[in-house]
Amino acid sequence: MKLMSITIFIKKQYTDRDKVILEIAKELFREMSNNIIGLESRDSWDGANLRIIVKDDSSKVIDKIMEIVYKEIERNNAYGEIIPEIVKASDLLLIGSEEEIKPRESVVKQIERALKKNLRETGSIDRTSPKNF
After folding, report:
1. Given this model, what pLDDT does residue 3 score?
2. d(Cα 61, Cα 4) in Å, to the nearest integer?
3. pLDDT of amino acid 103
4. What does the alpha-carbon distance between residue 67 and residue 90 come to, in Å, rounded to a whole number?
5. Domain 16-92 in CATH 3.30.70
6. How many CB atoms lie within 10 A of CB 53?
7. What is the DSSP string of the chain?
8. Where are the domains of the chain?
9. Neighbours of 113 (CB within 10 A)
10. pLDDT 10s digit of each residue in the chain, 133 long?
11. What is the pLDDT of residue 15?
12. Cα 65 to Cα 29: distance, rounded to the nearest angstrom
């Protein structure tokens, strides 16, 4: 059995939108805990303000997520306040299996080059991976 930890940061005044997002998170984790990795409240360039990070982004999974999200939006009369974005974890600068997720090699090398160029005495970058996603 994998243990899950939850971290919630509120950077500003707690709002009704935050309440709805927490309700959405509760339902998503209750119904789809095997696929949901995390939720992030954010303002995206395309208007999305709730990023839902998943392991699998098949159309069946997306349909189920959207059903849950819009059920909570309707229940809380929050039309237009929550605009979800579903992102596969491996599409977020991360690739790998469930056992080990690593930063993309090209990203790490680009960061190393920039550091060496700008901080002449930089050695190398330690490569660590989050476990048990």
Report:
1. 57
2. 21
3. 60
4. 23
5. yes
6. 20
7. -----------S---HHHHHHHHHHHHHHHHHTTTEEEEEE---TTS--EEEEES---HHHHHHHHHHHHHHHHHTT-TTT--EEEEEGGGTTEEE-SS-EEE-HHHHHHHHHHHHHHSTT------------
8. 16-92, 93-133
9. 10
10. 455 567 777 778 888 888 999 999 999 999 998 999 889 888 888 888 899 999 999 999 999 999 999 999 999 999 989 999 999 988 875 444 444 455 667 777 777 777 777 776 545 555 555 444 4
11. 85
12. 10
The residue type of 100 is E
The two tokens of residue 34 are 């095997």
**Tokens coding 120:** 């002449």
Q: What is the pLDDT of residue 86?
A: 93
Q: Is the dihedral of CA 91, 72, 62, 131 positive or negative?
A: positive
Answer yes or no: are the C-beta atoms of 98 and 63 closer than 8 Å.
no
